[in-house]
Amino acid sequence: MTSRPRRSALYMPGANARALEKARSLDADSVILDLEDSVAPDAKAEARDRVAAAVQAGGYGRRERVIRVNGLDTPWGAADMAAAVAAGPDAILVPKVSSAADVVRAVSMMAGGGAALWVMMETPLAILRAAEIAAASPRLAAMVLGTNDLVKETRASAANGRQALLPMLTGCILAGRAFGLDVIDGVFNDFRDEDGFRRECEQGRDLGMDGKTLIHPGQIATCNAVFSPAADEIAWSRRIIAAFELPENASRGVITIDGRMVERLHRDMALRVVAIAEAIGA
């Protein structure tokens, strides 16, 4: 697992020049420059050129630059991949991945580029094969939930706290954690419902998600706040690390701090909390 913050991953339509420019100034950890769902078929080629030029021009600062290509079986997939690899983003997000073979195919098309691979988990087969997909390549860095597509494909409902989706979400989280990947939650469609959005962010965080994909810049601040370690969590983590660094605790698996039993595994968790907090602060 990386200590790079991926609290907020904002989709930006690749055909919209103003959106691509605005992405350079937003406080999102990741900006996903989209060639897929947000781009009409007759605008695909223009969007591809626009996104590639934007990435090559730079100016995104610390923001992680991700290009979402069209599905590899679509008429645009191969050209999208070639352009994305040449542009040199931080990651390329491939939709409609449903097997390890799909991952291997994507990686083979990325040969020579330095980008990491992200995959959309948005089909029933992807959910059933989550562990297989997560294990398919060391180049894979993140799994992104496509909850709207999952609702469509499974005929489930996203109402009532996404109860019907929870097995799908937790299955991806387990697979991601088993193979050292970040897992990013799906979008919340009603960007005017601030309370509902916060509740869904908190649910994703409590399930173990690393962050959430967003459809509107107005969602960034809340998302970042929910997925950031709290001040008391950071302070406690620093105490755990410091305690295990004492000479008398160097070989101990379990120690006591303020009457609480603390295992060495808690130190590992504390190290990640502090690393994330420091990365956010930087």
Major beta-sheet overview: 8 strands, parallel, barrel
Q: Characterize the quaternary organization of these chains.
A: single chain
Number of domain units: 2
Count of individual beta strands: 10
For the CA atoms, what is the radius of gyration? Answer: 20 Å
Q: How many DSSP helices?
A: 13
List low-confidence stretches.
none
Q: Helix-strand pattern, N to C?
A: EHEHEHEHEHHEHHHEHEHHEEH
* Ends distance: 19 Å
**What average pLDDT do the residues reach?**
96
Structural class: alpha/beta
**What's the CATH C level of the largest domain?**
Alpha Beta
Keywords:
17% strand, TIM Barrel, 8-stranded parallel β-barrel, 13 helices, 2 domains
Structure report:
It is built from 13 helices and ten strands. It has helices at 17-22, 44-57, 77-87, 100-109, 124-128, 130-134, 147-154, 159-162, 166-178, 194-207, 220-227, 231-245, 264-281, and strands at 8-13, 30-34, 64-68, 91-94, 116-121, 140-145, 182-185, 211-214, 254-257, 260-263. The strands form two sheets. The protein has an eight-stranded parallel β-barrel with strand order 1-2-3-4-5-6-7-8, surrounded by six helices. A two-stranded antiparallel ribbon has the order 9-10. α12 crosses α13. The relative contact order is 0.12.
Brief account:
The protein is α/β, with parallel strands linked by helices and 282 residues long. It contains 13 helices and ten strands. Helix 12 packs across helix 13.
